[in-house]
Amino acid sequence: MMVSVNDLNPGDILNQDVVMPSGRILMTRGMILTQSMIELVKKRNFTQLKIESLNKDSSSIVDVIFTQEVLVNDAMFDFKKYVQQRVDYYELI
Q: In 3-state terms, what secondary structure has residue 50?
Protein backbone atom coordinates (compact mmCIF):
# COMPACT_ATOMS: atom_id res chain seq x y z
CA MET A 1 0.00 0.00 0.00
CA MET A 2 1.17 3.52 -0.75
CA VAL A 3 1.76 5.54 2.41
CA SER A 4 2.62 9.20 2.83
CA VAL A 5 6.14 9.65 4.22
CA ASN A 6 4.50 11.60 7.06
CA ASP A 7 2.60 8.44 8.08
CA LEU A 8 5.57 6.05 8.01
CA ASN A 9 6.58 4.31 11.21
CA PRO A 10 9.79 2.58 12.27
CA GLY A 11 9.25 -1.12 11.63
CA ASP A 12 7.32 -0.64 8.39
CA ILE A 13 8.67 -2.84 5.60
CA LEU A 14 9.39 -1.49 2.11
CA ASN A 15 7.36 -3.26 -0.55
CA GLN A 16 9.46 -1.89 -3.43
CA ASP A 17 12.85 -0.31 -3.99
CA VAL A 18 13.21 3.41 -3.28
CA VAL A 19 14.94 4.82 -6.35
CA MET A 20 16.40 8.31 -6.75
CA PRO A 21 15.60 10.28 -9.93
CA SER A 22 19.19 9.54 -11.01
CA GLY A 23 18.39 5.82 -10.94
CA ARG A 24 20.46 5.16 -7.82
CA ILE A 25 18.78 2.76 -5.40
CA LEU A 26 18.44 4.44 -2.02
CA MET A 27 16.73 1.53 -0.21
CA THR A 28 15.73 -1.94 -1.30
CA ARG A 29 12.49 -3.86 -1.08
CA GLY A 30 12.20 -5.78 2.18
CA MET A 31 14.16 -3.31 4.29
CA ILE A 32 12.74 -2.53 7.70
CA LEU A 33 12.42 1.22 8.08
CA THR A 34 14.13 2.98 10.96
CA GLN A 35 13.50 6.55 12.09
CA SER A 36 16.70 7.71 10.37
CA MET A 37 15.61 6.08 7.09
CA ILE A 38 12.24 7.84 7.31
CA GLU A 39 14.00 11.15 7.87
CA LEU A 40 16.24 10.45 4.86
CA VAL A 41 13.34 9.87 2.44
CA LYS A 42 11.69 13.05 3.70
CA LYS A 43 14.96 14.95 3.19
CA ARG A 44 15.18 13.54 -0.36
CA ASN A 45 11.66 14.88 -1.06
CA PHE A 46 9.88 11.56 -1.49
CA THR A 47 6.17 11.97 -0.82
CA GLN A 48 4.98 8.34 -0.68
CA LEU A 49 6.48 4.88 -0.31
CA LYS A 50 4.98 1.48 -0.98
CA ILE A 51 5.13 -0.44 2.28
CA GLU A 52 3.79 -3.49 4.06
CA SER A 53 2.89 -2.46 7.56
CA LEU A 54 3.39 -5.02 10.29
CA ASN A 55 0.05 -6.59 11.00
CA LYS A 56 0.01 -8.13 14.45
CA ASP A 57 -2.54 -10.72 13.28
CA SER A 58 -0.51 -12.05 10.35
CA SER A 59 3.17 -11.25 11.00
CA SER A 60 5.54 -11.37 13.88
CA ILE A 61 8.91 -9.77 14.35
CA VAL A 62 10.41 -13.25 13.88
CA ASP A 63 8.88 -13.38 10.37
CA VAL A 64 10.32 -9.95 9.62
CA ILE A 65 13.79 -10.89 10.83
CA PHE A 66 13.67 -14.15 8.87
CA THR A 67 12.66 -12.23 5.71
CA GLN A 68 15.56 -9.81 6.25
CA GLU A 69 17.99 -12.73 6.72
CA VAL A 70 16.78 -14.37 3.51
CA LEU A 71 17.34 -11.14 1.58
CA VAL A 72 20.86 -10.77 3.00
CA ASN A 73 21.69 -14.42 2.30
CA ASP A 74 20.41 -14.11 -1.28
CA ALA A 75 22.54 -11.00 -1.79
CA MET A 76 25.63 -12.76 -0.40
CA PHE A 77 25.01 -15.77 -2.64
CA ASP A 78 24.71 -13.47 -5.67
CA PHE A 79 27.92 -11.67 -4.69
CA LYS A 80 29.84 -14.92 -4.21
CA LYS A 81 28.57 -16.15 -7.59
CA TYR A 82 29.65 -12.87 -9.21
CA VAL A 83 33.14 -13.08 -7.69
CA GLN A 84 33.50 -16.69 -8.82
CA GLN A 85 32.48 -15.73 -12.36
CA ARG A 86 35.12 -12.96 -12.36
CA VAL A 87 37.78 -15.37 -11.07
CA ASP A 88 36.83 -17.92 -13.74
CA TYR A 89 36.96 -15.22 -16.41
CA TYR A 90 40.43 -14.00 -15.41
CA GLU A 91 41.75 -17.55 -15.23
CA LEU A 92 40.79 -17.94 -18.89
CA ILE A 93 42.83 -14.95 -20.08
A: strand
Bridge partners (DSSP) of residue 86 are none
Q: Compute, in degrees rounded to 10, the torsion defined by CA atoms 4, 40, 38, 3.
A: 20
- Under 8 Å CB-to-CB from 33, ≥6 apart: which residues? 8, 9, 10, 11, 12, 13, 14, 51
Q: Are strands 48-52 and 18-19 parallel, antiparallel or unpaired?
A: unpaired
pTM of full prediction above 0.85: no
| Residue 47 and residue 66 in one domain | no
Q: Which domain holds residue 48?
A: 1-53
pLDDT by residue, tens only, the chain of 93 residues:
899 999 998 888 899 999 999 999 999 988 888 898 999 999 999 999 999 855 544 455 555 555 555 566 666 666 667 677 777 777 765
